[in-house]
Each structure stands twice: as C-alpha cells, then as structure tokens.
Amino acid sequence: RHADVDLHNLGLGGSALLDPFVARTIAGLEADIISVKFGINLVNADLMRRRALGPAVHGFLDTIRDAHPDTPLIVMSSVCCPIQESTPGPLAPDFSDGTMKFVATGDPAEVAAGKLTLEVVREELAAVVAQRAVDDPRLSYVDGLDLFGPADVGELPYADNLHPGAQAHRRIAERFVPTLRQVRDSIG
C-alpha cells in the first residue's frame, strides 16, 4: 500500500524451503521487482546443512534470473528470532506454561558441523548476493535485522517465540518500503 505496488504473495506457511517449484513459479510471473526471503523455515525445519545452502540459493536465483535477467531482485534474510539466532532447529512446540510456544531443540555446538542458525543463514545469503552482484547490478541484499532486530523483539515480543504479531509486521513493512521505493524508482 505505502509503496504503491501490486503484490503476488507466495508465502507458504512454514514451507519456504528453497523449493525449485517456487523459483519456477516466480520465474513464470510478470514482475517489475522481485523480492524473496530465506531463512527461518530452513532453520526451524532443520532441513539442510551449511554446505548445501549456498548452492541451493544459487540454483533458486538462477531459475529466477533465467526468466528475469534484468528485473531488480531483492534477497532478504530473516528478521530477528531469538530462539533461532544461534541455536539450530528443529523447533518443537512447548506447552509448559499453558500456551503454545516454540523452542529450538538443536545444540549450538552442532553449528560447527554445519547445522544452520539464522546467524549462519544471514552470513551465507550475504556472501551469495555479494558474489553474484559483481555481475548482477540489479541484485541486492537486505539484512532482516535491519527490518526487525533484537531491540524490536524486546519492544514487540513474539507471543509464541516465533511469529511476529501485527504491530511487528507493520514495522517490518514500514522499514522495507524505502528499499522498495528506491528499487522501483531506479527502474523508472
């Protein structure tokens, strides 16, 4: 609304897992700007290891770029999620206080063996985008912590330890709008 854009939301409720069919779907859409976000679902599903993440992101972006070689493409990492910042997944439900919350069940020591955390995913995404941006000037990276960081979580905590609430989503959108406008204005 605030950026005056029409959106196609391909959010898959806990299933944003770098699936090739999603990249093909994006590739098949007409788009003036494309934005993708990776991270939290990969970590909380304990889906892959660090070694596989970079190539999977490259493949996903390659599929999009094959169809949209000149379209501005924004890659975003996850916003802050304290339970997954430095602790790998998988996540598990926790009803110990009588409400539904999530807890990370991984062991931080396993990060050295390749398990993913949000910190690791942000590092890998930034590296992939930096490598590709050398030859792809319309590719950019947005660190999710710039959209909603630890201080924001302190102010607007997640009721279930995982999902931002409505006020948090508004803040994230407000902070993303300038990036979106800048990209939109760069294409005329």
UniProtKB/TrEMBL annotation:
It comes from the Bacteria. InterPro entries: SGNH_hydro_sf (IPR036514). This is Lipase. It comes from Corynebacterium nuruki. The lineage of its organism: Bacteria, Bacillati, Actinomycetota, Actinomycetes, Mycobacteriales.
